[in-house]
Amino acid sequence: MSKRGLQATWNFHESGHGKGVPDGVGGTLKREANDLVLRGKDITSAKSFVESIQEQESLVMLYEVVKEHIAEKTHLLASQNLKAVPGTFKLHQIRTSICGEIWYRDKKDREDSNLRGLIPEESGSKKSEEDKEAKTKYKKSCDHQEPDGYVPKDTDFSTREAFFLKTLNNLASCTTFTDVHKMCTKIQNEIERQQFNIDYNYFPSILNTGISVDEDSLQIFPRDISQKELLELTPVRIGADGNCLPYTGSVFAFGDQKRAEEIRVRMIIEQTIFKDCYLDQDYL
User: Which intervals carry biased composition (Basic and acidic residues) (predicted)?
Assistant: First the structure.
């Protein structure tokens, strides 16, 4: 950024995990979009979102990338002989320091990395066994695979949570999109048969759910919104690094973080069955 004459303070709390810059930028844009919607602004397309950001006095600089620019850059990248940097899949968190130097924290071994500097391990943080289980990486393939469209039988599970956990493992064993699509159709029918519905008539609180208030988000929560009932709500912390989206969905749907596996399964079903919409660049 300094080479381009830009200055910035990289210190907003959305960038506390993942690959740093992408998470931070994504968090900022989501926050700006939330603020616009809370103020009654309709976001009907990516273009309208960009124009809304440009109209207001905001420190967030945003511009629209047209299709012609995408095609031009795609052709340019294809002509470049870019070299891969080994070991980047092991990296968990990256922060820039000075020009040509970065700080990082990886997942496993640190001795093999050529990157400079280490981010100290977070102190004082304890992960429950439930969080560790939720972050388990499911195997992409296995020696034994069930027939296409397999759905676990009633005798294989006794609870709703166990059903979705087993279903998630079965989805991870699929090797083609066709297999995933067939299984998602079967799973959706099974969910309806089991009546695993989401009841929105609940009243969650920090007393009956075990969730805690997110002080950072509370400080920037807008107070001039038109929907007065939203002022009675409080942002909460999500205790999942790398699984924040399904954990957040669990809080919205059930009032706690215990149903992340179910939300992840429902996300897979949604994106698979309605793939035409998700693959359409012009569809919002």
Answer: 123-151
- Residue at token pair 């599970």: 157
In 3-state terms, what secondary structure has residue 282?
A: coil
d(CA 72, CA 5): 25
> Cα 166–170–172 angle (5° rounding)?
115
CB 230, CB 239: distance < 8 Å: no
Q: How far apart are CA 146 and CA 174, in angstroms?
A: 9
- Report CA Rg, the chain: 22
CB 139, CB 172: distance < 8 Å: yes
Token digits of residue 209: 């759910």
Percent composition of the chain: helix, strand, coil (DSSP 3-state, to 5): 45, 5, 50
Helices (H), 142-259: 160-172, 177-194, 206-209, 215-220, 244-254
Q: Which residues pair with 279 in a beta bridge?
A: none
| Ordered DSSP codes for 42-104 | ---SHHHHHHHHHHS--S-------HHHHHHHHHHHHHS-PPP-TTGGGEEEEEE-STT-EEE
What H or E segment, with its residue span, contains residue 25?
Answer: helix 21-38
Contacts of 192 (CB under 8 A, 6+ apart): none
More confident residue, 55 or 3: 55
Scan for tokens 């990395």, then name that residue: 113
Q: What is the pLDDT of residue 225?
A: 74
45-49, 101-105, 121-125, 268-272: range with lowest mean pLDDT: 121-125
Amino acid type, 23 = D
Q: Report pTM.
A: 0.44
Task: State the Cα–Cα distance between residues 151 and 119, nearest whole angstrom.
Answer: 44
